[in-house]
TrEMBL record:
The keyword Membrane applies. InterPro entries: TPR-like_helical_dom_sf (IPR011990), UCP030959_TPR_rpt-cont (IPR014562). It comes from the Bacteria. This is Tetratricopeptide repeat protein. The chain crosses the membrane at residues 30-50. The keyword Protein biosynthesis does not apply.
């Protein structure tokens, strides 16, 4: 269906053209995209856009989501096979991430721990992964302790994912004042809508109905202005905000 007088394939080509200019790709991509907007966009997506997206957290989530939809257990099977072939740190990290994605965070913990006993013992990314496994495995105190130690050792280290894990851990420990401070800071700079959704749910769980509802409404108003690709990346979290808003906006039960 045409959009504002343009074919959808031209709109997609324009999106990839903007990406090519912004990321400094070779100029011949612009010719390919507009001379052959359908096949050109497909080639650009496979050759340039998707590989780049794999290096961002949201991109990994998007690509991983597509893979899981097609074959939910494939990544876990392949990661298990890789560790059986070679139990190196990289393969253990891959398996740990697959366990977390499969909702089996407790099984990820020993693999992250094993990776940290190797030459990567001071790798902050592995420590952040382990903290997430602790948190989602039901051990928020261990997650917070690990991240506190990481911050003390590497005060210049910055990780939005680690910050979100820390905020969630503090909230799970019912340290409300610090949790509020951490989430308010996250909302100010975090690229996605996950902190907003999680914070609204936490506020609702604390009985802060009005604050949770206001955060939902404000976030959903802002989400309407997101470009389509960003809405796709945030679909899960916007959906959770919508469902929470609906439940909070209903009549109060006396």
């Amino acid at each position: 269906m045409p959009i504002a007088g343009l074919g959808l394939h031209v709109v997609i080509a324009a999106f990839f053209a903007m990406h090519a200019v912004r990321t400094g790709q070779d100029r011949y991509w612009l010719f390919i995209l507009f001379a052959f907007p359908g096949i050109g966009s497909l080639v650009y997506a496979i050759g340039i856009w998707l590989p780049e997206m794999r290096h961002t957290r949201q991109g990994r989530q998007l690509v991983g989501g597509v893979k899981r939809a097609l074959d939910p257990s494939r990544e876990l099977r392949e990661a298990l096979d890789a560790v059986e072939t070679s139990a190196n740190a990289q393969n253990r990290m891959r398996l740990a991430e697959a366990f977390v994605a499969a909702g089996r965070a407790s099984e990820a913990i020993p693999h992250y721990q094993a990776a940290l006993r190797s030459v990567h013992k001071d790798d902050p990314a592995i420590q952040v992964g382990l903290a997430r496994a602790y948190l989602e495995g039901g051990h928020p105190a261990e997650a917070r302790k690990l991240l506190d130690e990481l911050i003390a050792r590497k005060p210049d280290f910055r990780s939005s994912e680690g910050h979100l894990i820390y905020a969630r851990a503090v909230a799970a420990l019912d340290e409300r004042n610090q949790a509020e401070e951490e989430f308010e800071t996250l909302i100010g700079y975090y690229a996605g809508y996950e902190p907003r959704a999680r914070y609204a749910e936490i506020l609702a769980g604390w009985g802060e109905r009005d604050r949770a509802l206001e955060l939902c409404e404000r976030s959903l108003r802002e989400a309407k202005r997101l470009p389509s690709y960003s809405r796709s990346m945030n679909k899960e979290w916007v959906g959770r905000l919508q469902r929470l808003q609906k439940s909070l906006a209903g009549p109060l039960v006396s």
